[in-house]
UniProtKB/TrEMBL annotation:
It is found in: Membrane. Keywords: Membrane, Transmembrane, Transmembrane helix. It comes from Kurthia sibirica. This is Divalent metal cation transporter. GO terms for molecular function: cadmium ion transmembrane transporter activity; manganese ion transmembrane transporter activity. Pfam families: Nramp. Its main location: membrane. One of its GO terms (cellular component) is plasma membrane. The chain crosses the membrane at residues 47-66, 87-108, 120-143, 155-177, 189-211, 232-254, 284-305, 317-334, 340-363, 375-398. One of its GO terms (biological process) is iron ion transmembrane transport.
Length: 406
């Protein structure tokens, strides 16, 4: 996939704006899945305006995690698993296994979410909606220029979700002044909410989605750093805008004393905001969020194993399609495997500190980075993210593993 051209005058790589936006939106829409909608709704109902502080803290952690990961991947010209194997032989294989297992398990949830989206939007049976959504995702990878189609689909879906969410946020007339005040002076702080948001936004396969996309487009070396910075920050900004819009929409409803439906809290927000038409709007957002997450999870998970055998790289699109088919078949035949999702949810949180920590070590090695010097203003916050997320995700694992045996 050679999508980068050289500038004849400077010799520097030129990459299209579409590729940069595609990488940003791939990362953003991968993180904006069914879980994103539910998490944001539930935490807003619990913390009210103080959830603004959680969003602020999570965005700061997200930015430094993504800027570190994307920059190290692109400057080294190596994928995450290749870098990890150079730091410690076998570590890349271990990381790839975690990514693929997590990506597959969460893709089952994404397929289910897409089915629920079409059910709310068009009244289709959930299973039928899930199958049709999977077929839509598969069609994208049947195109010869699949990466470009994927970029465009992510951008369109992301734009639609943001516009609809902003409309709903305005419709609920939230207390914006209080939200701004509590963002900086919260009355309540939830560490669990911060960890959940960071893990859901840049955890697991999402950590590498944009960086691997840029690498597949041919972007590499220190000359690409400005483009990497722009793309990674844009991805976090898109996620942040969506999160803030949903936060305000929910806050506008719950601040009126309205109780949300615990079985489907996100959908009830849209119903209270727009009446019966709200379910249709929720369906559009849920479907767009889920189907782009299906695409992102499949693409990024396969990018982690395609360097292990030449045939995987040769038939990459067919392997991605197989990944989507397996996810869909598990959902259709077994249903959503709550037990597996519970364990993988905890594992997904610990992937970020392992991955980021490994890449920060790699950033100090000349054998991997050449003469490049990784800046302290990225290294120190990166280490902070590793320590904070490492400790808290281990605590989450300790709490959740016993639940599997009940």
């Amino acid at each position: 996939m050679k999508e980068v051209k050289l500038n004849n005058k400077t010799g520097k790589a030129k990459v299209s704006r579409s590729v940069l936006l595609g990488a940003a939106f791939l990362m953003a829409t991968s993180s904006i899945g069914p879980g994103f909608l539910t998490q944001t709704t539930v935490f807003t109902e619990q913390l009210l305006a103080s959830f603004g502080f959680v969003i602020l803290m999570s965005l700061l952690l997200d930015v430094f995690a993504q800027m570190n990961v994307w920059r190290i991947i692109v400057v080294s010209g190596l994928r995450g698993q290749e870098i990890a194997n150079k730091v410690l032989p076998g570590l890349g294989i271990f990381l790839a296994i975690l990514i693929v297992i997590g990506g597959l398990a969460f893709n089952i949830g994404n397929v289910a979410g897409a089915g629920l989206g079409l059910n709310a939007m068009l009244g289709l049976n959930t299973t039928t909606g899930a199958i049709l959504s999977a077929i839509f995702a598969i069609i994208i990878f049947l195109f010869k220029e699949a990466s470009k189609v994927m970029d465009r689909a992510a951008q369109i879906a992301g734009g639609v979700m943001i516009l609809l969410m902003m409309y709903v946020a305005i419709s609920t007339a939230p207390p914006v002044g209080e939200a701004i005040a509590r963002t900086f002076v919260p009355s309540e702080i939830s560490i669990f909410a911060i960890v959940t948001l960071v893990g859901g936004t840049v955890g697991g396969y999402i950590t590498f989605a944009g960086g691997h996309r840029l690498l597949d487009a041919g972007l590499k070396g220190t000359a690409s750093i400005p483009e990497v910075n722009k793309s990674s920050i844009t991805g976090i900004a898109v996620t942040g805008i969506m999160r803030i819009a949903l936060f305000l929409a929910v806050l506008g409803v719950v601040s009126q004393g309205i109780k949300l439906d615990p079985n489907n809290p996100a959908a009830s927000v849209f119903h209270h905001a727009l009446g019966n038409a709200g379910y249709r709007v929720f369906g559009v957002i849920m479907w767009a969020a889920a189907v782009t997450s299906i695409i992102g999870a499949a693409y990024t998970s396969v990018s982690f194993i395609k360097t292990f055998h030449k045939n995987i790289a040769k038939y990459e699109n067919w392997v991605i399609i197989s990944f989507i088919v397996v996810s869909t078949l598990v959902f259709v035949t077994v249903g959503k495997p709550v037990t597996i999702l519970l364990l993988v949810g905890a594992l997904n949180g610990i992937i970020l500190p392992i991955a980021l920590g490994t890449l920060l070590i790699a950033a100090q090695k000349k054998t991997i980075m050449g003469e490049y010097k990784h800046p302290l203003w990225l290294t120190i916050p990166g280490i902070l993210v590793v320590v904070v997320m490492g400790v808290l995700s281990v605590m989450t694992l300790i709490e959740q593993i016993p639940l599997l045996f009940k």
